[in-house]
Amino acid sequence: MTEQQAQPRTRRKPRSLAQELVTVLTERIRSGQLKRGDKLPTESQIMVEEGVSRTVVREAISRLQAAGQVETRHGIGTFVLDAPSTGGFRIDPATIVTLREVLSVLELRIALEIESAGLAAQRRSEEELVGMRAALDELNEGAAHASDAVSADFQFHLRIAQASGNHYFADIIHHLGTSIIPRTRLNSARLAHDDQAHYMGRLMHEHEAIYEAIARGDSEGAKMAMRLHLSNSRERLRQAHAEAEAQRA
């Protein structure tokens, strides 16, 4: 390898370095350059080849894991799984990157999570309620420090789905992963024309209302609280999408 080849490539500023790297690695898998069972290059190799940071590499690998394309074996490396099927119904979390796609996933969540919240209020166990409270406390702690706390947000919604008693709700939420949380893809506070601390405070109150209704076994109240929470997010994204479309017109 020459010195010129070993230098990181100069890249244009993409919308998402991690997503661009996901696209590169996915194409290698689909084209057969990386086959089932093959070990991915090391983080350091990918950093040099693609001219990105270690953080970007790890985020891209995480997205590929969520999409079921690779698995990481601790202390050994990351390996390619079966190539994604091109037929049948499939949602690839790694492709949920545009405002339109995030909005579409949010509409799917509204259909699913309102019902799962209602069922959770009827069926949740004390242990499941404790799990929800723990995730919510972690989320609130992050909000107090102006943190996105995406992982805790996801865990809160996942635990509600699990408490529904219908594993299909949880399976879909788990498959989508943290991509169900809009701020993993977009600056939701900016879209809401709000500062981060105030925005996270509003989310905290919405989540608390959902939890309280589930805790007291109020199925309809849980549905209403979840509907309000997700509909508020949808409206923010819908307005942002309309503004973006108007700017392009």
From TrEMBL:
- GO MF terms held by the record: DNA binding; DNA-binding transcription factor activity
The record's section on SUPFAM superfamilies has:
GntR ligand-binding domain-like, Winged helix' DNA-binding domain
What name has this protein been given in UniProt? FadR family transcriptional regulator
Q: Which Gene3D superfamilies match?
A: GntR ligand-binding domain-like (1.20.120.530), Winged helix-like DNA-binding domain superfamily/Winged helix DNA-binding domain (1.10.10.10)
The UniProt record lists the keyword DNA-binding: yes
* The species this protein was found in: Pseudomonas mosselii
Q: Which UniProt keywords apply?
A: DNA-binding, Transcription, Transcription regulation
**Residues annotated as domain HTH gntR-type:** 15-83
Q: Which PANTHER family match?
A: TRANSCRIPTIONAL REGULATOR, GNTR FAMILY, UXU OPERON TRANSCRIPTIONAL REGULATOR
Q: Which Pfam families match?
A: FCD (PF07729), GntR (PF00392)
